[in-house]
Amino acid sequence: MGGDPSLLRKINQAAVLRALRAAGRGCSLTDLAATTGLSRPTVEGVLEGLARTGLVAEAEGAAAEGARRGRPARRYRFRAEAGRLLGVEVGSRRVTAVLADLAGRRQGEATRAVETEAPAAERLERLAHTARTLLGDLGVTVSALRAVGVGTPGIIGQDGSVALCAALPGWTGLPLGERLRELFRVPVLVENDANAAVLGERWVGAAAGADDVVMVLAGLSPGAGSLIGGRLHRGHGGAAGEIGALHLLGRQATPERLLSTAGTPVDPLDERAVTRVLAAARAGDPRAEDAVARFVERLTHDVAALVLALDPELVVVGGWAAGLERVVEPLHRELERYCLRAPRVVASALGGGAVATGAVRLALDHLEAELFTVTETG
Amino acid sequence: MGGDPSLLRKINQAAVLRALRAAGRGCSLTDLAATTGLSRPTVEGVLEGLARTGLVAEAEGAAAEGARRGRPARRYRFRAEAGRLLGVEVGSRRVTAVLADLAGRRQGEATRAVETEAPAAERLERLAHTARTLLGDLGVTVSALRAVGVGTPGIIGQDGSVALCAALPGWTGLPLGERLRELFRVPVLVENDANAAVLGERWVGAAAGADDVVMVLAGLSPGAGSLIGGRLHRGHGGAAGEIGALHLLGRQATPERLLSTAGTPVDPLDERAVTRVLAAARAGDPRAEDAVARFVERLTHDVAALVLALDPELVVVGGWAAGLERVVEPLHRELERYCLRAPRVVASALGGGAVATGAVRLALDHLEAELFTVTETG
């Protein structure tokens, strides 16, 4: 690396940016030189370059407490407002977009309904419209975006295309990452929805601080996202956690039937229908109580399979079942009975926002890798 | 590290040993200096030290092809016979010991039956006797042992004690590693039996070259060992793959009942009883055929749970079910139907020897870490 001045510049830039981000409120030249181990002239040169890109500015209220005499020392800060990150969930019944600044701080959110049977083009158009409306409402132009994270059902290939998805029409084979790159003109990171959700819960939700986590997204076809040693476990072909098919083997009832109260199937993704059943169960309707009990039993079986296979420290229950007040406690009790080592069980802290929040985290991870890490090949 | 001559010596030793092991048949001083980048006097000093420990000797048939004139160059080799490794399986119905040299080459094996209900002390005594007999028959003293690997059912703690084991009486809470260290006076590595088995299959069996593997040990309570990215996945508390409890949740029949042909339960660990049922099924006895079909269905469900959770590239079926000629093909067919991405399914190549072979691999891994790697703290 001795012979490559541009690599050296990148390394210095990354060091200064990291120090500014860690400091939060602003750093003097002296602080930055001390933290990074670089000379003051080098730090000054790096700051000038970063100021030109817009990523660094002088901190306001620059009268630093440390400067006791003469002119107060200039202080610098990371400009989290220099760009934006978009986190997107493309689901069966709705699309959601969350806008955040370059520090990952949430600035706004929009959700629109979409028909379960909507073809892929219509679903993508709904997403584009939702994102554009959100940006417009917040006075942000598309050119401000630095990265887009996406969570969607199915098995996602390494190139961001949907390798397989039974839930959304026309989704299998769709080059989703490519389409969204054409739309937003920035890097797009696509991930399975349950995988995105567990990243979101670990970032700012119920799995903060946990390294071995299984998150179950209860729904029409339950899926799970797993962290092993703090890292997403995608599996050999990206299909890890796709436990929706498990009940087919046991010839058990489908969730529609599990939730039905009078022979009429209830779509577990239809929140109003599910809410009706839950309300009836709470009111003491014995058929609704039975339906909820059957659903919990099925969910317990799916979660137990994951827990026995992976042995996590924590299970997070998400999707609409997170709102099922009676699911966490019985689930834990059942796992205690059947698992050799039962993990903690908690409800999602992010609820319906877990997938989109995880999608923001994907975009932020990409940005941080780009800004704060330098490799020999970078 | 500049100031620690003993660390430098270890690094040089490790480099020379690694080069000798890789070369296999013998290396000249010139070869070793070239491979390791060390000076000839340094290599000579290291070789003298290693010869004193017995780990290196002059290769026989020292007339090297490379030496065209004068006295042939001396050649050196790693002395795999300088010590022994022991791999042990302590199971429900038998104990097995395998002896290997320091290159992991198998030199002999002994197996003894033990009662399923035998208390822990009797099981340990049977193991000690089996190992001593094997060593005696091969003319090897206990002092030649360098490490012992052990595979046994249950959840194994990091200190080599049995945290939980439902299958063997008195096994839960047993400080198994400590007991065997007292017996053999060398490092003892204890691992769950299915975990040991998947290491064995990857080393010299059906999983060679595969990095994402699930190995199922079919038996009274099926267990699984998993490799993720080539490394054992033990889980947060060492309980990963303990899927034996899964069927309890689905209220399915126990394996004894699954295999019964006339209302009499058949113990799946009783090889003779199982063999009778399999033979009857092959002969066309419809009740036996039904029993085998029920067992395969149950096994499919357990394996599917693991496959859906982990998404491996390969499933290895071991335990006695590996001999079940009709298990691999239907299992793969069922997985194709229900899993989004079905892995390859193969029968164990090591059969009943998988666990003990994996235990040898554990001992070899320990030896190699000791001999061939040097860390700053080492």
Summarize the structure in words.
Chains A, B: One of its GO terms (biological process) is regulation of DNA-templated transcription. Chains A, B: Belongs to the ROK (NagC/XylR) family. Chains A, B: Residues 15-57 form the HTH iclR-type domain. Chains A, B: One of its GO terms (molecular function) is DNA binding. Two copies of one chain form a homodimer. Chain A has 378 residues and is of the alpha/beta class. Chain A has three domains: 5-80, Winged helix-like DNA-binding domain superfamily/Winged helix DNA-binding domain (Arc Repressor Mutant, subunit A, Orthogonal Bundle), CATH 1.10.10; 83-198 and 355-372, 2-Layer Sandwich (Nucleotidyltransferase, domain 5), CATH 3.30.420; 208-349, Nucleotidyltransferase, domain 5 (2-Layer Sandwich), CATH 3.30.420. The first copy, chain A, contains twelve helices and 15 strands. Chain A has helices spanning 5-23, 29-36, 40-53, 120-137, 176-184, 193-204, 246-249, 255-259, 271-282, 286-310, 328-338, 354-372, and strands at residues 27-28, 56-58, 75-78, 84-90, 94-101, 106-113, 145-152, 155-156, 162-164, 188-192, 213-218, 223-228, 231-232, 314-319, 344-347. In chain A, the strands form four sheets. A five-stranded mixed sheet of chain A has the order 6-5-4-7-10. In chain A, strand 11 and strand 12 (223-228) form a beta hairpin. Chain A is globular.
